[in-house]
Amino acid sequence: MRQMINSLHMTRILALCLGLSFLGAGLGQAHAESRFQVLVCYPGGPVKAKTAAPAMDKMLRVLEKLGGWPAKSFSHAFTSKAGECRKLLADKKPTFAITSLGLFLEHRESNHLIPLANPRMNGRGEDVYRILVKKGGPKDLAGLKGKTLSGTLLGEPEFLRRVVFAGKLKPSEHFKLKPSKRALRSLRKLARGKLDAVMVNQLQYSGIKQLPFAADLDVVFTSQAMPLQGLVADSQKTTKGERAKLAGALVKMCSHADGKQMCELFCIDAFVAVDPKIYEPVDKLWRENK
């Protein structure tokens, strides 16, 4: 059951496994002398700083060791609010960031963001969004018009419109949106008939087969595959050498004695250097569907 719940919160897992502690405050409030600032954005998520911070601080120290940096070279901040993330990106211009794919596409140019390393989870480096209904319910998106849609992925409707739905519908107009911080809770409500549909990502979907009501759910929409988002850097505030060093440390992390334990705990197979070409399809959708 613990493994299933973890897989139903994979966006949370992604943020945790990148080894960054969460403070819920502005950048620079802690370790003001640090050379690098890291912002972690998890729109709509249930992460609590007091439970995540100790393990993530340990992981941050592992990255510093693997990269050959002095201790406390990195300061950090976390927010679960998309609006606050946008403000921090605009005002603080963090050196490195972990954001959702939507926030990355939105701020790629303004913050000069370059992808460094992305995770592989359950053997996959791709994400896919799906919409589930109770068996016997609507058969397609047209049948869901005016119906309730829940899930943890609804906090960025513009990303959903441009990329997930490829510009074919506006979520806030097509559905009655009911964002949730816990996918499992939404899925239970769906199974009880209290919701019309739930949107899940690939790793949330992979955990559904373990639920007792899995056979009662049908998929009525599947997005195209997209990158499973990882760590990015501001190319104007970092050197090529610094970016390569951090990416290299992240790639080695799951083989390190301490790093391996954290990777296994959060279902990370490995981190891999990013091939920029994997962003071309989603970048095209983002630009063409303004």
Polypeptide structure, described:
- The chain is of the alpha/beta class and 290 residues long.
- 38% of the residues lie in helices and 21% in strands.
- It has 2 domains: 2-123 and 229-288, Periplasmic binding protein-like II (D-Maltodextrin-Binding Protein, domain 2), CATH 3.40.190; 129-223, Periplasmic binding protein-like II (D-Maltodextrin-Binding Protein, domain 2, 3-Layer(aba) Sandwich).
- The strands form 3 sheets. It has a 6-stranded mixed beta sheet with strand order 2-1-3-12-4-13, with helices on both faces.
- β1, α3 (49-67) and β2 (74-79) form a beta-alpha-beta unit.
- α5 crosses α6 (157-164).
- Residues 1-26 and 28-32 have low confidence and may be disordered.
Concise summary:
The protein is α/β, with parallel strands linked by helices. It has helices spanning 2-7, 10-17, 49-67, 82-92, 101-107, 157-164, 171-174, 183-191, 202-208, 240-253, 257-265, 280-288; strands at residues 36-41, 74-79, 96-98, 113-121, 126-127, 130-134, 148-151, 176-179, 197-200, 217-222, 226-227, 231-234, 268-273. The strands form three sheets. Strands 2-1-3-12-4-13 form a six-stranded mixed sheet, with helices on both faces. A five-stranded mixed sheet has the order 8-7-9-6-10.
